[in-house]
Amino acid sequence: MTDITRRGFLKGSSAVAGALAFTSLTPISAVAASKRGSGVLTAGRMGPMLCEVSDGKLIATKNALAQTVPNSLQTTGPDQVYTKARVKYPMVRKGYLESPTAPKGERGKDEYVRVSWDEAYKLIHEQHMRIRKTHGPESVFAGSYGWRSSGVLHKAQTLLQRYMSMAGGYSGHIGDYSTGAAQVIMPHVMGSIEVYEQQTTHPMVMENSDVVVLWGMNPLNTLKIAWSSTDCTGLEFFHQLKKSGKTIIAIDPMRSETIDFFEDKIQWIAPRPMTDVAMLMGIAHTLVKNGKHDKAFLDKYTTGYDKFEAYLLGKEDGVVKNSQWAADITGIPAKQIELLADIFSSNRTMLMAGWGIQRQQFGEQRHWMIATLAAMLGQIGLPGGGFGFSYHYSNGGNPTRDAGVLPAISASIGGGSSAGNDWAVSGAVNSFPVARIVEALENPGKQYQHNGHEKTFPEIKMIWWAGGANFTHHQDTNRLIKAWQKPELIVISEIYWTAAAKHADIVLPITTSFERNDMTMTGDYSNQHLVPMKKVVEPQGEARNDFDVFADMAEMIKAGGRDVFTEGKSEMDWLKGFYEAAQKGGRAARVRMPNFGKFWDDNELIEMKFNKKAAQFVRHADFRKDPVMNPLGTPSGKIEIYSKTIEGYGYDDCPAHPTWIEPTEFFGSAKDGELQLMTAHAAHRLHSQFNYAKLREEYAIANREPISINSEDAKARGIKTGDLVRAYNDRGQVLVGAYVTDGIKQGAVCIHEGGWPDLDPATGICRNGGANVLTSDIPTSRLANGCAANSSLVRIEKFTEQAPELMAFTPPKNA
Ligand SMILES: Nc1nc2c(c(=O)[nH]1)N[C@H]1C(S)=C(S)[C@@H](COP(=O)(O)OP(=O)(O)OC[C@H]3O[C@@H](n4cnc5c(=O)[nH]c(N)nc54)[C@H](O)[C@@H]3O)O[C@H]1N2
Ligand SMILES: Nc1nc2c(c(=O)[nH]1)N[C@H]1C(S)=C(S)[C@@H](COP(=O)(O)OP(=O)(O)OC[C@H]3O[C@@H](n4cnc5c(=O)[nH]c(N)nc54)[C@H](O)[C@@H]3O)O[C@H]1N2
Ligand SMILES: [Mo]
């Protein structure tokens, strides 16, 4: 950690002129398509890619857009197609096949039997219909959360839900694992979710910000992908920011890849994990003490500040939240907290924040408190000031283009209307917060609170998951495995033998995006390109497209079902239709696009039109200019530092203003050598995706997931880099490879999320180091019920026994 000094902070500030290379007049663009060289053009989450094919085999994939910062994920194409972990044939669990109405054996402990596609379809159809008839549509869970591959047609969940809608409805999910807490609290505070919205643009930050704060944010990793497909400009922006001479500050318990990337151009401050609210309050208190908070802004644009200030000053609970109070909790010296208050208030400061900080118990408080601090600084709505919660994700800040935008297939037939057919199409009949799935399985019919509503969990009898890796993404794997035994039927549509597939009754082999035709936009906010995703190679084994699987299943519901599902259109008919809709929209924005035939044959991406005005977008500038004419979508129309709505809910785990609440498992409660577990997102994976790939050699230690351990903590336990380590708590145990470093706060360890669970049947230890075997499965609070994975304590010790063989990527026998 850098010892922060005022000189250190301000040394670069005079070099701001260097930023002028990146202005609103210089858009970051693709390589002109004609210069892109040879190879088939396709795209994935990690951006447009060129595929080298030889003798019908995919040999290599690489970036198709010019980029300064390399993106390792773009090289994974061949591994995605040819890994031995692929599901090749439809497979059924032996004990299930023998007696589907009263299955024998146990999920996760049984053998698999190969069946034909027709047998698999028949088995699923009969049991699905029986369960649905007996228990109703609520009993069929098709929430199926996850990062299926990109594309506007081959959307696994949407296709599953389209089929389930035709079958009579299903139980679904609300929210996501990513921003579960922030997306529910922010509408109460700002009237908008903030986390998935366009940011004050990169050029505006470059031209106007003096200080940029990266609060719990690791863009060098997280910008390698986007929800649609990355436009590759986000990493470029941070590359420019490094050269800008601005004061850049990172607040992170761990020296992330981003902090390494910025080298000596960044000030790194490492608080204890889960203590950010205290640190933010220490800064806020210092502002008030020094009279540096912007009273005029608070008066005009916010409501309830007085109540929050009373809390800050200790008038509410007798605890003064000053810098020394914050220092005791965060482990950051009081004078550094005070210096931050000074620097933030005397410069144009952009508070950028990531989301790992809200994937914690009471996670709602984080972004609420950051927005509150930004309001106290009075720079919200000014160019380069305020806060931004999506600079690390999907290229937030890359200016929005004038574009022809692709629509996508919908979960409802006919895109929302069921006109033209006699099917009673119903969607989700009961949706619960996505990260509460295990609680739902454990407690059918239980009432619970969510954002002011009383809701009831469905009784789930069947699960069909397509396009998500829930055994990797969900917390407390052993608790999940127990609850997972309850439903009567579990079907998994997967490309690979993931842990979820190995715990299913029926597993269906699905194509990779390299084995089918599709299209995508890039840059979720920018719409910078429209990219063809051409089929590159033939499907492996008996893999089929999700689209075809559900079309086949729809025909079994009732004769003619296929035509209803497909609306009588083939894969290419759909793509042509989507393209022509984009072309029509583009015309209105004066964007010219070739006809579909030419576009498809040329196999070139289309770069959309740069819009100078959009490049000057400043978030909340309208509100700042005229809060009466442009009120926020909150009850008061202002920024709600105190929310009467939340007060009305009466939740002690989410009070009516930002509040420091001690977490259950954290530094303050650690005993007997317990360490705080962080589970950040990995550089060389998208969650669990590509864990099987060659890239694993870049990070695996002792052939397991690495665990970062502070040097002092390692020394106390006699652990060295390269050692096999057992990390454990009451919930489970994992085998990991030690990485001993000063780059993590003492008392904290990190195992990145996404390692495939691989439980040894003999001992129960996870042989691969799956982080969620150790995490606790609690909601952030009753307000948002978000994922709180980063809230766990663990112990570690050197592993001295015979190391068990890694089986994570080995398919079951006969598969
Ligand atoms: N401890 C901890 N846990 C976490 C997090 C954390 O920070 N810490 N982060 C959480 C977050 S933010 C998220 S978003 C989740 C991510 O959780 P997921 O989105 O479930 O994770 P992925 O590994 O991307 O899973 C995608 C799965 O879809 C499959 N797939 C890909 N394409 C297709 C397709 O076309 N069809 C079908 N049928 N399948 C396909 C892939 O093989 C893969 O198994 O994890 C959450 N879990
Ligand atoms: N390469 C890659 N890119 C991805 C993903 C991926 O899996 N791989 N996942 C995508 C998805 S679905 C999402 S939701 C986003 C996730 O984006 P984020 O949620 O922002 O990512 P994280 O890695 O969980 O956390 C970011 C940083 O917060 C730090 N951090 C953790 N705990 C604390 C804390 O208590 N205080 C502070 N100040 N910092 C803390 C971590 O060390 C890390 O450097 O990324 C997306 N991009
Ligand atoms: Mo996420």
TrEMBL record:
Its main location: periplasm. Residues 86-555 form the Molybdopterin oxidoreductase domain. Mo-bis(molybdopterin guanine dinucleotide) binds at W147, R359, H473, R516, D546, N772. The keyword Secreted does not apply. Gene3D superfamilies: 2.40.40.20, 3.40.50.740, Dimethylsulfoxide Reductase, domain 2, Dimethylsulfoxide Reductase, domain 3. Its EC number is 1.7.2.3. Binds 1 molybdenum-bis(molybdopterin guanine dinucleotide) (Mo-bis-MGD) cofactor per subunit. InterPro entries: Asp_de-COase-like_dom_sf, BisC, MoPterin_dinucl-bd_dom, Mopterin_OxRdtase, Mopterin_OxRdtase_prok_CS, Prok_Mopterin_Oxidored, TAT_signal, TAT_signal_bac_arc. It catalyses: trimethylamine + 2 Fe(III)-[cytochrome c] + H2O = trimethylamine N-oxide + 2 Fe(II)-[cytochrome c] + 3 H(+). It is an enzyme of class 1 (oxidoreductase). GO terms for biological process: anaerobic respiration. GO terms for molecular function: electron transfer activity; molybdenum ion binding; molybdopterin cofactor binding; trimethylamine-N-oxide reductase (cytochrome c) activity. Its cofactor is Mo-bis(molybdopterin guanine dinucleotide). Keywords: Metal-binding, Molybdenum, Oxidoreductase, Periplasm, Signal. It is found in: Periplasm. Residues 675-791 form the Molybdopterin dinucleotide-binding domain. It comes from the Bacteria. GO terms for cellular component: outer membrane-bounded periplasmic space. Residues 1-32 form the signal peptide. Belongs to the prokaryotic molybdopterin-containing oxidoreductase family. Reduces trimethylamine-N-oxide (TMAO) into trimethylamine; an anaerobic reaction coupled to energy-yielding reactions. PANTHER family: TRIMETHYLAMINE-N-OXIDE REDUCTASE (PTHR43742), TRIMETHYLAMINE-N-OXIDE REDUCTASE 2 (PTHR43742:SF10). NCBIfam families: bisC_fam, TAT_signal_seq. This is Trimethylamine-N-oxide reductase.
